[in-house]
Amino acid sequence: MKDGFLKVCAATPKIKAADPGYNAGVCIDAIKRAAEKGAKVIVLPELVLTGYTCGDLFLQETLLNEAKEQLCRVIIETRDVDALIFIGLPMEVSGKLYNVAAVFSKATVLGFVPKRNIPDYAEFYEQRHFSEGNSEPVSVFFAGQDVPFGGNIIFQCDAVTGLAVGCEICEDLWVPESPSVKLTQAGATVIVNLSASNETVAKAFYRRDLVRMSSSKLLCAYIYCSAGDGESTQDLVFSGHDMIAENGVMLAESKRFDTGEIYADIDIKRLIHERRRMSTFRSVLKSEDGFIRTGFDLTTGVTELERKFDRAPFVPSDLSKRAERCEEILLIQSRGLKKRLEHTGIKKAVVGVSGGLDSTLALLVTAKAFDSAGIDRSGIIAVTMPCFGTTGRTKNNAVSLSEALGCTLLTVDIKKAVTVHFEDIGLPPDDRSVTYENGQARERTQVLMDIANKEAALVIGTGDMSELALGWATYNGDHMSMYGVNAGVPKTLVRHLVSWFADTCGDDKLQTVLKDVLDTPVSPELLPPENGEISQKTEDIVGPYELHDFFLYYILRAGFSPDKIYRIALKCFEGIYDGDVILKWLKVFCRRFFGQQFKRSCLPDGPKVGSVAVSPRGDLRMPSDASWSAWEKNILNIKEI
Q1: 454 is catalytic
Q2: From the candidates 46, 246, 274, 467, which is the catalytic residue?
Q3: Catalytic position from the list 27, 170, 220, 590
Q4: Is 319-636 a domain of CATH 3.40.50.620?
Q5: Is residue 572 annotated as part of the catalytic site, yes or no?
Q6: pLDDT in tens, 332-345
Q7: Catalytic pick from 40, 115, 368, 564?
Q8: pTM
Q9: Which string of b and e fits 99-131 if b means at least 16 CB within 10 Å?
Q10: Where in the chain is the domain with CATH 3.40.50.620?
Q11: Annotated catalytic residue 54
């Protein structure tokens, strides 16, 4: 199970009601197909060996004995399958009939899990046939061995760290306190549900939300397998609605009214990371907690990944959701600034505008904040500060943007001041070192701060989260402000926010300048232009932002190790970047991320926008002098996959 990935399967075969012999055959076929695909946990529906719709035939000894015999057949004929298997059948214990999941692996029966919540309302009459299952396990004799029988059984893999599976059956999911709550608190990272949920209008939407949100609330993978074709349609219709969810994300879902198998690659390590991260997830650590843990073994190896990963994890791939997300983010940013304006009573703001993406977004946010606070936009002082690297294109865009938004435009040429400063500190005229670049950035910040003092205004920060992660900011230069509206927004998202604003602003002049800003290369413009064009392109120096944002998300949000990130990056960026390029920039990211923490440790205030943030007062409490040797070692051990 390399990197924590494990392939799982929900399988709904076409059965015949009350024909265990036939049903066992199609179940065996489904299990073997799943095994050929590499599935290590295989789940079949509730009462699949008999069919859910047998009615009073469940009271017939003939059907019960045949189901038991066919279970033995399934176990024997799948003895070479390297997987944990769940299959549903009726089972008599001590004169009572139970709706159970039989759990086995490699011809060894590991347990029987009975359904605990037996419905007897609307179209359900299960209490006519089945008794409520027990929670604390007891021992039953089956096929020559003692087998635990009860709900509080966790099937724990000896060879796979963190793989612990709990089971519930259909209605168990729908009740206020599902068994899965205590199962996950006791350590289960995967919940399986053997179900027979019939179809009524719109029920599928509710069922989908129930499965997805259960996986989110319980920080688990949830495998839901439901009865389908072949069940009696005397009064009900079953669609075989199978789903596999993980921590609120639907990884796989079957087409309803169809049969077959669905597969997903669940990530056990990420689930464990989420539980470590979320301090309110309560674990049961008592030695006697009413649960038993039954071990089983699997052959581990590299799971052939079919799972999809977002190449741009900060940007919704669905266009309608992207528009909704952009509007929401701009509201968060602008409302954060509005509150700061109201608290201080300040009616003016100073924004350094360069004609680049970040300062453009900051100016748009400031305009929205002024609008919502009822302050005239003329109180926004947009300052352009041309120097050695400024091009006509960016200067013109800064001016046009400020005018289109109705801001007060102020131009302060800083070349003379910077030149005098360089003379004062003895920097040679032909020096193009970091001092040459940072001196300009710090002069610009001084100008903004002094104008703010003069005008009783706030300096609005423009730097984004990707720059903060890489330390691509001048300490006490553009690193500093009085409120950083972009501090929670990664670079890849900045572009989409500006693009969305351009498409929805309804102002032709504003749209034109925003489109040109979007077409301009990302640059700090600190080195002199070449033939009037930008000579210094950020991504040539620090690497592609789409890669860095990818690394940033999976390191901070998912807790992935560099080698795991490299593995999924190869998949996501296939045909765009080769392995050597990805590895090069991954190393750069990790080195810079650790080395530049001191800049993030003293960030100005700014709103958190998404699930990842680098504020020292919010998500990231990290020492400024932490060593990155363990991450470097991991990177050095990466081999081409």
Answers
A1: no
A2: 46
A3: 170
A4: yes
A5: no
A6: 999 999 999 999 99
A7: 115
A8: 0.90
A9: bbbbbbbbeebbbbbbbbbbbeeeeeebeebbb
A10: 319-636
A11: no
